[in-house]
Amino acid sequence: MALSEVHWDHQIPLPKLAPVRAKLTVALVALLCFINSYDGEFVFDDSEAIVNNKDLKPTTPLNNIWTNDFWGSNLSSNSSHKSYRPLTVLTFRLNYLLAGGLQPIGFHMLNIVLHAIISALMIDMFAILIGGLAYDEKDKIVNLAPKTSLLAALFFAAHPVHTESVAGIVGRADLLCALFFQLSFLTYCKAFNTDDRFSVRWVVVSLLLCAAAMLCKEQGITVLFMIPNPIQIMGTGPPAFTEVDNPASFAENIFLRIVNYNYYYSLNAWLLLCPWWLCFDWSMGCVPLIKAATDWRTAWLLLLWCVLIGLTSQALCSQDSQRRRTLTLGLVLLVVPFLPACNIFFRVGFVVAERVLYLSSAGYCLLLAYSLGHCCCRWNKYKKLVCVAVLLLLCVYVARCALRSHQWRTEQSLFTSALSVCPLNAKVHYNVGKNLADRGNTTAAIRYYREAVRLHPSYVHAMNNLGNILKERNELVEAEQLLSKAVSIQPDFAAAWMNLGIVQNSLQKFEEAELSYWNAIRFRKKYPDCYYNLGRLYADQNRHLDALNAWRNATVLKPDHSLAWNNMVILLDNTGNLGQAELIGREALKLLPSDHTIMFSLANVLGKLQKYKESEGFFLHALRINPNSASCHGNLAVLYHRWGKLELAKKHYELSLKLDPEAPGTRDNYNMLRRKLDQLQRSAP
């Protein structure tokens, strides 16, 4: 393209920096904004995408990342979210391998560094979008808008709406997509040079980088100004979302859907303009539906379209070619990356998601920088005022990023920060309650769970968790009511069926409990914990064979199910089947060689079989693992007592009573041993 000066660039209130220094400045600003999230925890969606994702582990075949979705579920599964991002998962796996496990600091640091690199590269991208392709005598691309591109890149580096993508590890998908998007664009530009020759090689590289962007996140293909075919990308079809995920998609008529979708667009625009009210989740009542054209909120979507139409008319009709190019490409960069999230081509699973604005915000930052340059040209006498405003805005951005990224460091601060932004969001109250329950504050957790159910009366997960807490507090009647309501609302909710069975078992409603357990297993075929609890029910009813079969099923489904193994050994021991108990115990220890509870149970069996030496070995091994077990010391003392090693028996009785003075039977056994020792002492010559 021809060399042309960008006439407003010299009016931008920034120094003109050398290219390398400009990139370093932008990268440092990006680091400054988000560096305090480097030592954060795994929060919110990180649990499913990283902590519980088997595709990260070295034991999982690497090929799995190409057939599973972002969350580790097979793409063909009905429960899959159909988000196909294998390259992003691959970087998670590399983080896991380099750190030797789930160490969040490495995950966070890579996110921060990626954002800094992307922000620095934005200078080159903005320079081409504003000034076009121009070359010097050495055939290198010249930046014809160094100040405008620097200002836009600074806005991008420090924009607070990026916090979710940078401080939340699952935002890696947005970062990698943006990086490959940029590289694809920049390499495509290299296909042209001053001699008007066209390089096929660089076009091929650009297409490969575009494919890489799409394999990091689906919207990466928008670098070609196209929309991904959802059926091709999403396996067997698009994911099934519910009304709480995206209520506008379930509005009663097409008019209300369109109105609400456009209102969502205006909310996204507001987050770009004023990124102060940020929230980790905008679903479940956070944004009430517009149900009539008279709703005052329709004014916002009208304002949005007035602004967009005004900018578009300027982009198309302006006599200034530089203005036309900048506005056109700025609008394209703002709108096109957002298209996959706009509900036009397929339903998305959210109302508003700050992470989807990561690329679109680049278009906004470009338009903002252009607007400031235009203002400086038109009102030159207020240039100092504009300079102060720019510095103030950047300072506010940096401060807001620092505060918001600090909130993303822990789930407690992240969830509680949302209470003031979305007080009507049931999921916010649910997550606050869950975090409190995980930290042991069940009293406060109950309050938030109840509020979540009040705000969303069909919130089955809140009912299930609340029912579990009430079960632990022995408030069984209310727990049964909540869990029964949960399974009536969602009949395939296997976890709620199992928990209902546990409560009914505690209420001695054995037939109802058995039915609940079998319902849970019907809806979740591989459910070892449910088989374990079913076995406990059968054991309470003295249905020993059924109990053993249930526990055996639990260990088949989950070979390291310690409780099921241990209960089998104990039941066989209690029913006099010592030989079978020994076999089961030895089988269990092959799979769980460091499980002290199974060692303890097997040692008891071996003691009854008079295999004292082996029994002693298992007791001592168990005590090396868990030296403060009063019952283990007590039972070892009983073994020594039977074996005739009375001094050792005395020692371990005393250790047991020291650890637990109220240990049942131990005091009586100890007193009996003392009397025997006294008799032996008196009878000694």
From TrEMBL:
One of its GO terms (cellular component) is membrane. It holds the Pfam family TMTC_DUF1736. Residues 237-309 form the DUF1736 domain. SMART domains: TPR (SM00028). It is found in: Endoplasmic reticulum; Membrane. Keywords: Endoplasmic reticulum, Membrane, Repeat, TPR repeat, Transferase, Transmembrane, Transmembrane helix. The chain crosses the membrane at residues 112-135, 261-278, 298-317, 329-350, 356-373, 385-403. Its EC number is 2.4.1.109. One of its GO terms (molecular function) is dolichyl-phosphate-mannose-protein mannosyltransferase activity. GO terms for biological process: endoplasmic reticulum unfolded protein response. TPR repeats lie at residues 426-459, 460-493, 528-561, 596-629, 630-663. It is an enzyme of class 2 (transferase). Pathway: Protein modification; protein glycosylation. It is a multi-pass membrane protein. Belongs to the TMTC family. This is dolichyl-phosphate-mannose--protein mannosyltransferase. It comes from Scophthalmus maximus.
